Structures are given as C-alpha cells and as structure tokens.
Amino acid sequence: MIVHKWGITEYKEAIIKMQKVHKSALEDKENHLILTSHKACFTVGRDGWDKKWDVEAIKCDRGGSITAHGEGQNIYYFCFQVASAIHFFRKVVLSFKDFFNSLNKDIKYSKSNPGFYIQNRKLCSLGFRYKEGVSLHGVALNVDIDQSFHSKITPCNLQGFTTTSLVNEDIHISCNEVNKIIVSEILKNFNERL
Q1: What distances in angstroms separate CA 83 from CA 23, 89, 92, 135, 152, one per listed residue?
Q2: Which of 41, 65, 73, 138 is a plausible cystine mate for 157, CB 3.0–4.6 Å?
Q3: What pLDDT is recorded for position 128?
Q4: How many other C-beta atoms lie within 10 A of the C-beta of residue 74?
Q5: Which of 73, 41, 52, 48 shows the shortest CA–CA distance to 62?
Q6: Listed residue (97, 156, 106) closest to 127, CA to CA
Q7: DSSP per residue over 100-167, as a string?
Q8: Are 112 and 64 in contact (CB under 8 A)?
Q9: Distance between CA atoms of 176 and 144, rounded to whole angstroms?
Q10: CA distances from 133 to 14, 25, 81, 88, 191 (A)
Q11: The pLDDT value given to residue 16
C-alpha cells in the first residue's frame, strides 16, 4: 500500500490530485491511501444534488448527501484495487470499527445510514465511487473539529442527528495518532504492507 500524506488541502484541489492518484492506481495496480484534511467547506454527494441547501456546497461525484469538512477532521481517500465493491466496503468498515471499538464500545456503525455514530451523534462519514475497478473518495472522521461550523448542517441530511467528534465525546487523541492507528488497521484488514 502506498500512503500519500498531503496535510491540509483545499477540497477542489484535493479532488484533482485524487484523480491523478486514481490514474496511477490504474497503471501500477497498487492500493493508494491518501491522508489529508480540508479547509472549511461543505460538499454534496450525488444523493443531494437535487436539493437546496442553506449553505454554499460543492457538488462531488461520491455517494451520500451533505457533509461538512474542516481542520481537525481526518480524511482517508482510497484509490484501491476493487474486485468486489461489497468486499472492499466491508474491509473499510471493519478497519474503522476495530479502531472505534478500542476507544468506546458505544460507537456503532449504521448500515442504513453509512457512518459511525454515538446514539444520534454522527462521528464518521463514508462515501465512495468506483471507476474502472479502482475506488475513489472515502472516509471523513471527526477528531477535533469546529463544532459550530459543522453544526450549520444536519449531517448527511439525517433529521434528528447532530455532528460530534472524538474530542467532543471526551476521547482525547491527536489527528496524527488517529492516522497511525487507522493506517495500521487498514493494512491489517486488507492484508497489506507499507
């Protein structure tokens, strides 16, 4: 697995770079994992293109609805070789499930509204696309976010839900430490090596 560490990026710029990594993955047949964090913005996946929003949002071709991004949110873009979307997605979910289970047993994955939650508080969003056998987009995990910015929207347009973060749930761990553990879980569940 090839890991790309981009630091903080503008969303639109990161998507252009992700497309280039996707092209590389098509050519070298390797799995590429991108670690980044975005400057504050809102994005809307294909499920939300036909709706009107109270905030300015950038349309993107991933699955899902509206999502807030900002510093303190770890982004994991997967440009992975995918023979079966179902098996790939299960491995991604398992990687994050193992991580969350080590922190708080109350953090649960919802199959009906893909993401990780503590009761009605959304902690982590998943949205993918598959093109020519290689995945695009990925996972957004709230570590230590600006709660006031993220609360301007209902996460993924789920009525009755709010956004939370690890820090907001009294789990104090740095973004860098989260990245180390998540990368280790992904390596384990995909039987990969750096």
Answers
A1: 17, 11, 14, 10, 38
A2: 65
A3: 95
A4: 20
A5: 48
A6: 156
A7: HHHH-TT-EEETTTTEEEETTEEEEEEEEEEETTEEEEEEEEESS--HHHHTTS-GGG-TT-EE--TT
A8: no
A9: 11
A10: 21, 10, 6, 11, 19
A11: 97
Number of residues assigned to the chain: 194
Residues designated as active site: 156
CA distance to 51, 98, 126, 192, per residue, from 17 (Å): 28, 29, 19, 23
| Spatial separation of the C-alpha atoms in residues 79 and 58, rounded to whole Å | 21
Of 136, 186, 190, 142, nearest in space to 166 by CA: 142
Report pLDDT for 35.
98
Helix (H) or strand (E) holding 188: helix 175-189
- Which pLDDT belongs to residue 79? 98
Res 155: pLDDT:
82
Which stretches of the chain score pLDDT less than 50? Answer: none
pTM over 0.85: yes
**Per-residue pLDDT tens digits for 11-21:** 999 999 999 99
